Amino acid sequence: MSLALQAALKEKTAAVETMLARLIPEIPEAEGRVFEAMRYSTLAGGKRLRPFLVLATADMFNVSETAALRTASAVEMVHCYSLVHDDLPAMDDDSMRRGKPACHRQFDEATAILAGDALLTRAFEVLAAPSTHADPAVRCTLVSELAKAAGPHGMVGGQMVDLLAERKGRDHLGLDVSAITRMHQMKTGRIIGFSCMAGAILGKAPPQIRHALQAYAHDLGLAFQIVDDLLDVEGDPARMGKTQGKDAAAGKATFVTLLGLERAKEQARALGEQAISHLKVFDEEASLLRDVVGYVLERQS
C-alpha cells in the first residue's frame, strides 16, 4: 500500500467512525439495546473501503466534508447491515466478524435482525436529510441509487442467488463463471459502484464522468471478490477475523473452484489493470483511486 493511501485511509476512517458514532448515539430508553447492537456492528473496525471510496471521489469534486461524511456513513451502515444479516444462521451462519463474535452471538438473533433493519433504514434517513445536501434533487438521486444498489436487483438479489447456488452446489449444479460474475456484481459490485459514484452525484458531475467511475467500480468490485475467494483458500483466519474455508465446506462455486488458483490470480490482476484504465480522464485527481486497486489486490484480510 502506498504511503499516500495509508495516510488517507487512516485519516478518512477516523472521520467516518466519528460521524457514525454521532449518527448512531447511545440512548437510555428501552430501545437503546438496538442502538447498542447497531454501534457494536458498525464501530467494530473493518476495512472501510466503501466509505473511503465515497470520500475519495467527493474530494475530486470539491464536495463539502459534512456531505461526504454523511453519505459515506450511510453507505457503511448499509454494508454493516448486510454483514449482520449474512452472519445469521439462516444465511451464512458465521460466528465471527472482524475478529469478534457476530452480532447475533454477542446479543441474540432477534436483536441482530432488528439492528440490521435499523441500520438500513437509518442510512436512508441520513441521505434524505437536508444537512446531507442542500439540493433535494441530489438527495433524491442518492436515495434512489443506493436503494437500487442494495435492493432486489443489487445486493439483496445477489445474496439470494448466492444462497440458491450453495443449495445447487450440493447437487453439483453450481454456477458457471458468467453466472458467478453476475452474482458478485449484484452482491458486492453495485454497492462499490454507488460508493464510487456518490462523490460525483454530490458534486453534480456530468453523466460521462459518472460512467467512468462506474466502469472503474465494476472492475474493482470483481477483483475484490476474486481476492476474497482466494483468501478463503489461502488467507490467515487470524488476520481475516472470520472463518476460513467456509465456501469449500459449503460446496459453493467460486472463482477459485472454477478457474483454479493461478488463473483466478491472473484474472484479478487483469481486472485491476482494466479498472485503472478507466481513470485516464481524471489525471492526478484519481491517484488515490489508482492506489486502491493495488490495495485490493494485495490485501490479506
What is the secondary structure topology, with strand pairs?
Layout: H1 3-23, H2 32-42, H3 49-60, H4 65-86, E1 96-97, E2 100-101, H5 103-106, H6 109-128, H7 136-150, H8 155-170, H9 177-202, H10 207-234, H11 237-240, H12 246-250, H13 255-259, H14 261-277, H15 287-298
Antiparallel strand pairs: 1-2
Helix pairs in contact: 1-3, 1-4, 2-6, 3-4, 3-9, 4-6, 4-9, 7-9, 8-9, 9-10, 10-14, 10-15, 14-15
Short description:
With 301 residues, this protein is mostly helical.
Model description:
The structure is a single chain. A hairpin with a 2-residue loop joins strand 1 and strand 2 (100-101). The chain has a single domain, classed as Farnesyl Diphosphate Synthase. Helix content is 72%, strand content 1%. The protein is built from 15 helices and two strands. A two-stranded antiparallel ribbon has the order 1-2. Keywords: Isoprene biosynthesis, Magnesium, Metal-binding, Transferase.
